[in-house]
Amino acid sequence: MIKAALIDWLYAKGLVTDAVVVSEMVVSNWARRADIAVANGRLYGFEIKSEFDSLKRLPGQIESFQKHFDKVTVVAASKFIPYIVKNYPDEVGVLEVCVRNLGVEFRQIRSGRICEVKDYSTISSFMTKVEIERLLKSEGIIVKGGLPRRDLITYINTVPIRRLKKFALNCIKCRYKDTFLAFDSARRRDGSFESLGFLSKSETLRAKVAQAEELPLGYFKKINESNERAIDFSKLGPEFGGIPEDMPQTVTLRKKEKDQTRS
Question: Rounded to the nearest 5 degrees, what angle is found at the Cα of 46, between the Cα atoms of 28 and 30?
Fold first, then answer.
């Protein structure tokens, strides 16, 4: 509910103009996930802490998010607000969230500030090897074919930081364009809460398959999610960078593996 209401709030504030919204965006070599990210001319990260959450992981999240996002905002339940305001710097935005019978309400406690990310290594972490190769080619930088990603990155430092940042943001927007457009279309019809699944790559791909095969739109929702396990991408970051749009996020367990997992 809070995530859907936050997206509606972002729309109302005009932050989703010429932008994409990303749910559970991974950063820091897949070690951290921002609940919501918005890529327009900058990259914004939002972390939600509801009444049922704790702040145990927040220090590490804020530290990582401030390195990767141009602006970070914590969206938190009322009971957490005094602690967050006191313990985190002024550049971190703070939104108080109240869940009531009629829905979710927000109150801006602190607007926060934009702190542009200017670190070459951090910005390049959002790009895949193919995207880096395309950037270098567009800049007229000639490199030997077949170089691994870690070697290609050494050439990035010669690209002006503004052009690198713009290129990386465009890569993010292109990567998540299909999922966001699917969500945006469904949102207009059904509302944000009912449409959140379309912000998932796997949900969007399933919807495309269902459409191509003329299956009912909810066909794949019949699949029991307990048969699936999330893929651990933590060791792929340094070598491959950002996740391609069409990369599966889960694997389906065989019946034997499923039974072993339960035991």
Answer: 20
Higher-confidence residue: 212 or 88? Answer: 88
Please identify which residue in the block is written with the tokens 């802490």: 49
Degrees, nearest 5: CA angle 259-261-263: 70
pLDDT > 70? residue 3 = yes
pLDDT value at residue 205:
58
Burial code (b: 16+ CB inside 10 Å, e: under 16) for 94-116 equals bbbbeeeeeebebeebbebeeee
Q: How far apart are the C-alpha atoms of 137 and 131, rounded to whole Å?
A: 10
Instruction: Report helix, strand or coil for 238.
Output: helix
> Domain 2-110 has what CATH class?
alpha beta
Q: How many Cβ atoms from other residues are within 10 Å of residue 91's Cβ?
A: 14
What CA–CA distance (Å, rounded) separates 51 from 56?
13
Q: Residue 38: which H helix or E strand, with range?
A: strand 32-39
Does the pLDDT value for residue 139 go beyond 70?
Answer: yes
Specify the pTM. Answer: 0.78
**Ranges of each domain in the chain:** 2-110, 120-173, 177-262
Query: Sorting pLDDT into bands at 50, 70 and 90, what band is 8?
Result: very high
On the question of pLDDT at 261 being above 50, the answer is: yes
User: Residue type for 91, please?
Assistant: E
Is residue 204 a contact partner of residue 198, using CB atoms and an 8 Å limit?
yes
262 within 8 A of 224, measured Cβ to Cβ: no
| 129-138 vs 149-156: helix crossing angle, rounded to 10 | 40
Residue 108 has pLDDT above 70, yes or no: yes
Mean pLDDT value across residues 211-236: 53
What gap in Å lies between CA 156 and CA 252, rounded to an integer?
38
The length of the chain is 263
